[in-house]
Amino acid sequence: MRTIAVVNQKGGCGKTITSINLAAFLAREQKRVLLVDMDPQGHATLGVLSGSVGTPTMYEVFVTERGGQPTRLRDITRSARENLDVAPSDIRLSVIPERLTGVAGRETVLADNLAEVRGRYDFAIVDCPPNIGLLTLNALRACLEAIVPMDPSFFSLHGLGKQLETFDALEKQTGHRITPRALLTLYSGRTPFVRAIVDEIRSHLDGRYFETVIRYSVKLAEAASHGLPIAHYARYCAGYEDYQALTAEVLQQDAESPKRERITLADVGTARDDESGRPLTPAVTQTGVMFTLEAPDAARVQLAGDFNGWVLDGNDMNPVGRVWEKVVKLQPGRYRYRYVVDGVWQRDPRNPVVEPSSYGGHDSVLVVDEQLAEWDPTGEQKTRISA
Ligand SMILES: Nc1ncnc2c1ncn2[C@@H]1O[C@H](COP(=O)(O)OP(=O)(O)OP(=O)(O)O)[C@@H](O)[C@H]1O
Ligand SMILES: [Mg+2]
């Protein structure tokens, strides 16, 4: 699943129109898409769902009322049309930053929830509010890519600089890296001034922008006001052509970039297998990364990986009921491993990420690049990240 945040702290630059229309065109290309509305204004929700939205919404995912079961993302998604689901928002989401002050793990609520549904969708498109608060931080922690829409105005270059600084700061604090690309929106192109600004923006961006430019198109606003993406509203207008072209560019990047699917610490903490509902392995515990394998009939199970030199001696797993387990303190990095069951080497059956091994067969792959992976000898996982 590709995860794309549509983000710019500047208001009114086309984030929501981009989220709605990219999501809808991707769905038309037979991609399974989840549109996540992280803005309490709820405009993305209104742009694809007609009629009253009601509850539950993203608010319930963030707040568990006393004594209640936590609501998961999969409990609140609605089908907007074929291949397009939406996780709606409503105005109550605006109290979340205050409500969750001081609550551990508040920055990764969306990341943890998205990890649980990643087998169901090809794309998650996350529409952000126009500020850098807890809700935007959640979107950034949950996504590997960002689209930064910008209208060609005098202030937009300054805004873009600020936005890129935010990504850098996030990477320094958490190790989470986002690939951003700017998208020019609301383009009139009529005046030399606007054209000069576009050139100026691009010269600063070193290729990190979309070739597609979204022109000013009144039909886009009209379509959104009817709860419809442009793809289902008006075929012959600049808005249709431009968002179709943007979608093609996004899909092209998919073909160019190496496989993005990977397991990160943030993902595996609570990720569950879509069919069985069991946790994916490996998982995060207080003391390190927990490897588990269900092998009730085995007499001996060992864990071999590049982190222990592929050595079997001393790397026995411990039987706990039907399951064998072992906790390893891993530093951030990319690791390959296999289980050795009574002498037979095998991949992790519950980790979907594999790579061909030079010895034949496949190794399982784990990327520890999220959070800190600094395991405290006292058993507490340290947290350096704050909203
Ligand atoms: N290409 C376009 N042509 C014409 N109108 C547009 C275009 N893109 C967006 N708009 C209109 O401009 C306004 C702002 O767009 P949008 O809501 O997408 O911005 P936003 O960045 O999500 O705003 P906010 O920061 O408030 O969330 C809306 O009324 C929208 O319909
Ligand atoms: Mg918006």
Class by helix and strand content?
alpha/beta
Kindly give the count of domains.
2
Ligand identities: adenosine-5'-triphosphate, magnesium ion
Q: Tally of extended strands? A: 16
Instruction: Report the β-strand fraction as a percent range.
Output: 15-25%
Radius of gyration: 22 Å
Distance between the termini: 26 Å
Key structural traits:
387 residues, alpha/beta, Rossmann fold, Immunoglobulin-like, 7-stranded mixed beta sheet, 5-stranded antiparallel beta sheet, globular, disordered C terminus, binds adenosine-5'-triphosphate, binds magnesium ion
What would you note in describing this structure?
This protein is α/β, with parallel strands linked by helices. The protein folds into two domains: 2-256, P-loop containing nucleotide triphosphate hydrolases (Rossmann fold), CATH 3.40.50; 265-368, Immunoglobulins (Immunoglobulin-like), CATH 2.60.40. Helices cover 29% and strands 20% of the residues. It has twelve helices and 16 strands. It has helices spanning 15-28, 43-48, 58-62, 73-76, 96-99, 109-116, 134-142, 156-174, 192-205, 218-225, 238-256, 265-268, and strands at residues 2-6, 33-37, 78-81, 84-87, 123-127, 145-150, 179-184, 283-284, 289-294, 301-305, 318-320, 323-328, 333-341, 344-346, 354-356, 362-368. It has a seven-stranded mixed beta sheet with strand order 3-4-2-5-1-6-7, sandwiched between helices. Strands 10, 13, 14, 15 and 16 form a five-stranded antiparallel beta sheet that branches. It has a four-stranded antiparallel beta sheet with strand order 8-9-12-11. Strand 6, helix 8 (156-174) and strand 7 (179-184) form a beta-alpha-beta unit. It is globular. Residues 258-273 and 371-387 have low confidence and may be disordered. Residues 15-16, 39, 43, 127 line the site of magnesium ion.
